[in-house]
Amino acid sequence: MAAENPERRSSQEHQQRGLTTKVALRRLHEEIERVLLEHERQCGTESSYRKLRAAFVKRYDSPLGWLSIGTSLLASGALLITGMLWPALCLLAILSLDLFVVVRENNLRRTEIFRKTRHALGELQLAEQHFSDDWQPTNYPHLSNPMSPCVSLQWTYRDGKIVNMPWALLVRGDYIVLRPGHISPGPCHELETKKFFTANEIYGAAPHGDPPVKPVARPPLPDLVCCLESTPYLDNLTICLKKSLKRPPTIYNQQRYLLVTKYIQQWGFISALVITLISGLLRLHGYGLPTDEKHNWRFVLIESPAAAIIPLLPLIFPLMWISMNLWGIARLQCFLKTPQAALEKSTSKSFEEDLDTPSYDYQNVSLLRSNVFRIWMQLWRGDSELLPRSANLVQVLGSISALCCVDKKGILSWPNPTAEKVFFLHNTDEEAREDGAGSQSSSQSESDDVPDVDEDHKEQGIVAEVLDLTHDQHCPFRLEFDDHEWKAHIKSLKPLGLAILLNTCSPLTHEHYAQFCGHVTAVAMLDKDLVPVTNRYAYALIESSKSFLHGRCLCELAKQIGFTDHATDRFALEGQLASYRHLQPDVVRRDIRFARQLQLSSKVKVPFPHSLSVVMRENPGGYLSLFTQGTADIILDCCDDFWDGIDLRPLSAQDRKRALDFYQRSALTSYCTAFAYRPLRHGIHGALSGPQRSGGECLYLELPPESKLRMQHVDKTHCDFQGGHHVKLGHSISTDSLLFSESKDEECNDVEGCFEMQCHQVFIGMVTMQYQAQNDIVRLVEHLERACIRFVHFSKENELRSRVFSEKMGLESGWNCHISLLSEPEPDNEKDRSTAKAKDVPEHIGDGLEKNYLLGPPNNLESSKTLSSSAPGAISNPDECNPLNAALNSDDPQSPDGEGSKESSQDSTPKNNLPGDSELEGEPDPNKHKQRHSLDSAMDENCRSLSTLTESTDQSAPINFDMSNRAKLPRGIENIRPHLEQVDNVPLQVSLFTDCSAEATRQMLDIMQSYGEIVVCLGSSASNANADIFLQADCSIAVEPLYPQVCQDVDAYTESNIQHNKLLWQRQSGKSKANDDEELLEGGLQGCAMQTPAHTISPLYLSRLLNSLPCSIAVCRDDPLSLVAIIELSRRFSLGLWNCIQYWACCAGSISILNVLCACLSLPPLLTPLLVIYLMCVPVPLIAISLAHIDVDPKIMNRATSKKQTDYDSRAFAFVMWCYGCKFIVLVVSMLVSYWMFLSESRLNPAAEVSEELSLDVEDDDDDDEDFYQFLYFARSSALLGIILHFVFISFTFVHRDHALWQRNPFTNRIWGITCWLLLLFHTVICVLQLMLKDFDEQFPKLWAAILVMFGGCLLSMIVSELAKFQENKVNARYQRRARLDFGTKLGMNSPF
Description:
Layout: H1 4-13, H2 21-44, H3 48-57, H4 66-81, H5 85-110, H6 112-131, E1 153-158, E2 161-166, E3 175-178, E4 188-190, E5 196-197, E6 216-218, E7 224-228, H7 233-243, H8 251-284, H9 297-309, H10 317-337, H11 369-381, H12 393-399, E8 402-405, E9 418-427, H13 437-445, H14 455-459, E10 462-471, E11 479-481, H15 490-504, H16 507-526, H17 538-546, H18 555-561, E12 571-581, H19 585-598, E13 610-618, E14 623-630, H20 632-638, E15 639-643, E16 648-650, H21 653-669, E17 671-680, H22 691-694, E18 700-703, H23 707-712, H24 751-758, E19 761-770, H25 775-786, E20 790-794, H26 799-809, E21 818-820, H27 830-851, H28 861-876, H29 883-889, H30 895-898, H31 905-908, H32 926-945, H33 976-982, E22 992-994, H34 998-1010, E23 1015-1020, H35 1027-1032, E24 1035-1040, H36 1061-1068, H37 1076-1082, H38 1099-1107, E25 1113-1116, H39 1123-1160, H40 1169-1177, H41 1179-1186, H42 1210-1241, H43 1263-1295, H44 1310-1333, H45 1340-1384
Parallel strand pairs: 8-20, 8-23, 12-18, 15-19, 20-22, 21-22, 23-24, 24-25
Antiparallel strand pairs: 1-2, 3-7, 4-5, 4-7, 6-18, 9-10, 9-19, 10-11, 12-13, 13-14, 14-17, 15-16, 17-19
Helix pairs in contact: 1-28, 2-6, 2-7, 3-5, 4-5, 4-9, 8-9, 8-39, 9-39, 10-11, 10-39, 12-39, 13-32, 15-18, 16-17, 16-28, 16-29, 17-27, 19-27, 39-41, 39-42, 40-41, 41-43, 41-44, 42-43, 42-45, 43-44, 43-45
Keywords: Membrane, Transmembrane, Transmembrane helix
InterPro entries: ATPase_P-typ_cation-transptr_C, ATPase_P-typ_TM_dom_sf, TMEM94
Pfam families: Cation_ATPase_C (PF00689)
């Protein structure tokens, strides 16, 4: 209760401080609207000419270019000259429709981001007017939550209380609490001193001069209450509004431009026009074929070329392209919103689902066409939710070649690290001495370089025991020991579990630890040896320093050991003692040598030495104990003995070295905390004892950086650290002597006393923690690999940590599989190197930060209440300690040490049973222990083989693979392009980039895109650093990460009090009818939709909405979004779209070639202009669109996608012409032959002007010509039916492009089957009616051969087309093998490939 008083005082004292939620939301709404109106005004003031020009100039954005418009007008004019009014009017009408649609689409594309912003403004306004009154502090992330680089939060005063405000919701005039080691979210000034902070400036400490030679007390840095001078989000908003249209063109838009605009509408048009004009001129000058007798210049030079070029005009192609793309988006949007019945019966929701045996039954995915149609109509009206026009999600996902993830914690990994290894020193029993000989000798081998090993010690069989733990993939915290016989070590583990519960996981220590860590972060940045010189990475530094405190909740480990929730009830916190020291120069030098030996491109990071001790009084009895956690270097300097599971033993130089070796290796790749303990004679009070005892004041101990100096300062008779192997035991305290420790006047309150209190401790053990990859991500990586999509992780951490985690995800980690984007500092001299080394430490600290809890994890709900209530009080008084600061500072990687110092109090005093004893099993029987001993030695051997314990840090790699990047790949973002241009393409094929800043990541995405990669970016929607990256990618997916928890028993935040507030409000106000359809889509009972509907308006929802403006999809991490499923859906649709366009293009080309050849043969056009317009606007598009449906095929997700091709490739062009020419050659030949046979039957030679109409109203003065025109009319009527019949039969081979006709029945595509039958039926009836009306029956006997050639050729067309498809599939299979080989080969210039 005492902790609540300061908070109550502070909330009354600052009742008026800061803004109310309503005012803040209104101000945010006004400022966003102001920026939006300004951009809309700029867009609106453009001249109509510029808007019109913009719609047609960008060749990849617009399906209608200036040349196409010009040719259409030219063709219309030519037809008007010849008096063909109907075809000319049809062309003009279609062109007008195209122009209208394309201009409108372009305007919708340019204003799409404005509409999406307007939608966000609407939600903001709703929140301000209706929902913000219900928001409680619990709806914001917990104040004590560990920091994560994926989540941008800021302590802010709202409604007089401090809340953890999402960055996007901060506004001008907000009162924020700036904590030591944190970055200012925007320009702000401190209220009292008026000190000004620029945006992204770090609040650090003032230099103290040289490190002390003896322990000194340091006051913590105060929290600063600052007033924001501008709204931070506006900068990101401006970037989004300016750059939203600058994404690279999709591969399908490029191919559409190449095929339709360049090849057909430019080259094809010019070729057809030139050939027909030349042949017409030859005919006019009498050089035509013998069949040609009568000429008319308008017919020869205008109508004949017009009939040849009309199929090559855009006609309804732009309309078809736009509507089909919108249909694909509508299908995807419907898929995202339709609840899917999962096949998996797993209780846990999954982000990426398994597609091996798909967890979604894709064949039965019920996308109701009515729903898709409704969404399609909304898209036509301008719906901008998925940014369908500026970032075509379906086209991008259909051709994706790289999925880039820029955030790790809470997205790729679980948000909290979990324990991975437990280290302790263990003494084998005397009975087991023989069995353990092997392990003893092997453990000695670790210390071969220690010359004087105590023989007695050898015989005692001291071994370093390392127990591995496995994380349960379905739960963020659950753990299990790998070794089924771990209970043989229960005596060694008990003190560890108690220390965890009393120090690391005690709610009472979180606040102090958080403030201490903030202070240490700021101090670490002061040290010139610890701070990165480049400003560019200052942000990464802070992020890393926050890592001090990973929010390492170890409650689960204590529970596994056997402690219950009530194990700590007997203990009361008497005081907390925090100390730190600067790195020893020899440590810095050693790590430089180590890094050099590993050939790492970035230096190894050393945790900043610190420790946190708690003084606990046990009741009844009143015994005082000191539990310490911290980095192992500082803890081991405090310890004289270790607990071996039975008794205290002196900590020899060899044991110390074993522990340090383990720590140094573990600290490189994980977060390692050491634990120690000692009983006390007297307590502690005053400022050094922490805020609880001192009424709010607080001081920290800064120790000398050299342990020798530190030791000289202590009375040698009490503490002999230099005493070799026979350490004096005179300082041990018996339990009896503690019975008289009640007297208060003996309590320490000076630096000297507090320092001595920390000496003579008993070493208990160490725990390493690591972030675990989520299972669905591991599966996702597998499936993407199969689909030849590279999963690329842009890690903010250094190479060692990044590679360890990338291995957990299943990414390749060979010798040339990662690149550091951090630029090399210029090496001036050795001194500079050591500076750089020191720099690394903070970076390392930063790495840890990502994993740290801002405050230590509270143990239970009560503790979290204490934290949240006392934190504001501490903030309001700068002199009081701020838990959050501590947490931030504790982010340092060393903070792991801090976790373990409390553990061995009970075991070290055998008379004093562990509080958890009653919950633990009794002592294991001796036989079991004997067996255990041989296992110990095996385990010890195993540990060594895993490089957990090896001879010396200087001679061995930290983990069990060579971390050096021997491929000599480039280092630093500025060296990537030169490497790609001059050496090889390996940088495009690696899956891991380390030391990434936001700007370096953006530049790397740009480089990938310029080399033809299609990049989809996956990032956190809670981070303020991702806007530029989201805009750079071809399209982006924003994921709300899982938030780290201060403890597994405390929710990161809760929305239960405002659940479905928007939905309930709509129902009450009667506005929900319009949304009934949405509910049908989104709220089905049979499953969960991939995208959560926005039924709840909360602070985190608004933050996600604002930060994800440039993203096509924004989801929560626990929504069951299956990326593999939407990629599969997009691939299918994109293949269908391209199939449709290819078929349409082939039909257009074949009709044009028919009419060109007719002109060359001096025949009238087989198809008149009006017939051509009809064919290209009705039957051909209908068949083509029906071919866009692609059946579900598992092979689709095993194909490699092609790279962007923007240049003309003669070989590819020749292959396409040959392949598709073969498919339509039979059609062209059979039509021409039958047409010639029809006309040769007429007694007259064809030579007169011919009308274009289907029903030929031939006004012919010559009765002799009547017969000729009758045959021509019959030939054209039959040809129309014949061409459609051929088109239908050729389309058989387009239904299943990858399968032969006999392998897969084409009629599984029911839409195509129905379309073709209806078209054939309709045109057969029309043809028969025309012939009957003209009494042409008596001519049939003469023309049976021509009719047979015309209609019989369709079967031959299908056979030839199938053979061409067979050849095409062979080439494609070869290409696929080559692409897969390219995808898997990374050797670059050194490769034999």
